[in-house]
Write a structure and sequence with these properties.
CATH topology: Rossmann fold
Mean pLDDT: 84
Largest sheet: 6 strands, mixed
CATH architecture: 3-Layer(aba) Sandwich
Number of helices: 8
Helix content: 40-55%
Distance between the termini: 26 Å
Number of strands: 8
Strand order of the largest sheet: 3-2-1-4-5-8
CATH superfamily: von Willebrand factor, type A domain
Length: 227
């Protein structure tokens, strides 16, 4: 009976959450880290889907797969997802391709794959993994989680810029690099948008200081486009 019920659900979805070290960061102590913000979005999306009798699975990854929950539509699934969000993460690397490919396997028929990440990954590898998910018939939405401080430098004087997933550090005067930094970020965002659009995937930049309603509406816009 359970299997029959789950086969009759409207949609199957897999939520893919990046829990690598770069996600565990905030530009201000008054804001949630990118990871904490993304976790709350995951929990909210999962709850809404399950209430609509949609089956939801979860994949968490950093330098390895941390969580793989098969898609289920039962009420207990939401509790499993929330418990999984409390498990360890913050590895130094981001094996996004493996996470997306695993998510595509969780849903047997065409459904939705929603990826939440700061996208500090190799673009070519990510594009290939999403291409595989699209080839399997899945709709894909990428929620690009960004702290406002990543979009525009808001401090003065000198600062040390460092890669949270390596040991690289560079000292520079903020006023000298602000314009070039903003232009580089906007270029990267536009490149992501174009690459994903070419794959037929949705893409949205989600700021950690924005209300939850915005990312949820964008995520469910993909679901409404399903045949």
């Amino acid at each position: 009976m359970v299997k029959q019920f789950e086969e009759e659900t409207n949609t199957r979805a897999a939520l893919v959450l990046d829990v690598s070290k770069s996600m565990d960061w905030s530009g201000s102590p008054e804001r949630l880290t990118k990871l904490r913000y993304a976790e709350q979005v995951v929990a909210a999306i999962a709850l809404l889907l399950i209430r609509q009798r949609d089956a939801v699975g979860l994949v968490r990854y950093d330098d390895r797969l941390r969580t793989v929950l098969p898609a289920r539509a039962r009420t207990m699934q939401w509790r499993r997802i929330v418990r999984s969000l409390e498990e360890p993460g913050a590895g130094s690397d981001s094996r996004m391709a493996e996470g997306v490919q695993q998510a595509a396997k969780l849903i047997r028929r065409p459904g939705i794959v929603i990826l939440l990440s700061d996208l500090l990954v190799d673009q070519d590898q990510m594009e290939q993994s999403l291409r595989v998910a699209r080839a399997a018939g899945h709709q894909v939405t990428v929620l690009h989680i960004m702290d406002p401080s990543e979009l525009e430098l808001d401090s003065r004087g000198e600062a040390i810029f460092y890669d949270p997933e390596s040991t690289l550090e560079v000292t520079a005067t903020v006023s000298d690099v602000r314009r070039a930094y903003s232009a580089t970020v906007m270029h990267a965002i536009e490149e992501w948008r174009q690459r994903l659009a070419a794959l037929g995937a949705g893409y949205e930049v989600i700021r950690t200081d924005s209300p939850f309603g915005v990312p949820l509406r964008r995520a469910f816009a993909t679901r409404q486009r399903l045949p």
